[in-house]
Amino acid sequence: MQAVQRTAFLSTFIGRQDEVRQVRDLVADHRLVTLLGVGGLGKTRLAYNVLDHLDAEYPGRTWAAELADLTDAALVGHKVAEALGVGIPSEEFDVDLLVAHVGSDPAVLYVDNCEHLIDSAAELIAALLASCPALRVLTTSRQALGVLGERIYPVPTLSDEDALELFTARAASVLPSWTQGDQDREDVAQLCVALQGIPLAIELTAVQVRTFTPATLLSRVRDHLPSGAAVRGEPLRKTSLDACVRWSYDLCEPDERTVWSRLSVFAGGFSIEAAEHACADDDLPPHAVLQALAGLVDKSVVERETRDLEGRYRMLEIIRQFGVARLEESGELHPCRRRHLDYYRDLVERFDADWMGPRQSAWMRQLGLERNNLSVAFEFAVSSKEGAPSAIRMAPVLELHYGTTGGTGRAIHWLQQALAHGTGDMGDLANALRVGSFIASFMVQIPVAEEFFTRLRALADQTQDDTVRAHSMYAESTLRMFAGDADAGAAIAADALTLLHRLGEERLEANLHFLHGVMLGWADRPDEAAEAYRLCFEMGEPVGEQVFTSYSTWGLGLDALLAGRVDDAIELERAALRSRADFQDQLGIALTIEVLAWAAAEQKRGREAALLLGAAEAIWTDTGMSVAGMPYVSRRREDGVQATRRLLSSREFEEILQLGQTMPQSEVISIALGEARMPGDQAASLLTSREQEVALLVAHGESNKAIADELVISVRTVETHVENLMRKLVVTSRAQVAAALGGAAGSPS
User: Fold this and answer.
1) If we measure between CA atoms, which residue out of 239, 309, 238, 305 comes closest to residue 266?
2) For the domain with range 252-331, which CATH number is right: 3.40.50.300, 3.20.20.100, 3.40.470.10, 1.10.10.10?
3) Model confidence over 687-706: pLDDT tens digits?
């Protein structure tokens, strides 16, 4: 699976230069640094700015995990793994998978909002630090983690100068014509002091300049602040922020306050359609929700994600938490979460009904955007007997989305929790048990798969229902295949396909035709496998289906390679890879890259074969999937590795294999598709302009210190550039850089 995309902020980062420098220095000197402070101080924004600076020092080795939306402490490890792009194959979290991914190379992990899951976060971070000697961890929290060696950095409020600059910038963003006179400047300065220099409080107040003068704002803020130094037991900065958020809430119209509260059930953003569904009721119709949402955007309570053309919105965490508190006060939290769950259950039902068609790619993109909300919906659903049937009904998204993009461990966890309640429609139960058995089989969790299948077979025997029996046969066929008996699996699949066709279950039938082809291929029956793939194409191509048909293309390519038709195999695998890359389907990408690596070895292109093998191995490791669960592929992979080793020296093989493991996936795919050359074939073009400057100086024998002086950069930055360019040029010593540049190392300018 791919590492999750970082949060993109919609406004510029202002001030805090001293704090950024101080935190960077702390990260350089300490392996665990926690930014400590109350909500609204800007801990997250400061940490992300520090992380942006660290990107250059740790290229490709900085990750950010956000815990704010997570409620289940058992899934902290899964959430961090998702941030790193590491798949967890089972319900039980195994920290060794993260340790293997991080390894012993320098890296930085940022974990945001630890306070509500402090024990689980601390335990995980301590384990990672103990096993990954060059890892550094940056966290934000309202409470110290208490891990040995933790360095606390209390995040200060803004300086007077930074606070004034922030207010001015945010005010101008909502009212470009606004300028400060001398009196305004004095009022704003006093206003920032009254707000204790808290960034969020300043931002919420600044947007009110469209309605109030700074003098009026100052008066109103003072009226809303509690008297005395602080509320008992609370620091003044926290009570100041609470009062400011409360004032912003009070300034809203009644409908806006209602929508603010109800929107707080969303995680990681929401669409207009989702907002209407979660917020509207008999007293608040959909058109009123839209008007209230527009008002909240105007007041900067809700932000519109401008990079999303379809229009998505989100709330800052402290604003969202305030809304949750209002729902709890009013007794609306459970009904709002129920409406949130209902919306995402309906979304999954639409996805399932529309899957066999041309919109698969669009659906996968939408589900990727909604991944956090789907997680929240599942967690709420499995927490009660009332909600469990919805989680069971949502099983298709676990199979078709989580099963190919990562997160299979969480999928099994949710299914087991939902099924434990003993509720659900018979057909939905059968499908959920089949999905659980299939995912566990594929992840080589055979005992877990057997548990799901045993329950499913008992349900089929009990009900004597053909649909349940078809699900049972489907699950048994795949279980037998992944357990190593492809012939038995193929025989059961053939009977299941007859029944599925009679029942009109087109999606399951098309998918099983592909899997049937795989079983027959693994059983060394290539002609029958080709016929199974043809039947999959026959069902999928007329309706624009791409997923099952592209997997069938992969199967045909593998069979072509085994039959000695290498050129045909390459053409088929590249066609499959183009489709899989568009879907960001990590399983499909790994499988096609594997076969293309073996084909490259057949054509004596050893360097390309080694690079592709390394890239595929990285995906298997990152997703938690295992080639060991596919004996037929596993045997072919070992043959491909040995063939590649014979084409290269041992050292060259290991170096290029490692390069494939660390190279960005988009670059690997371009090479696999024949659209880009191997590293070293066009050495200089692989480097950034700064890396080329550094490479030329290295080629002329300059030390890192001399290069730093020449380019006016730090020695640490030079070290990072040297490490990066040597990886791209596939060299292991400075002396090899000039040769790798192929004579391009003339006199540096």
Assistant:
1) 305
2) 1.10.10.10
3) 787 888 898 888 888 888 88
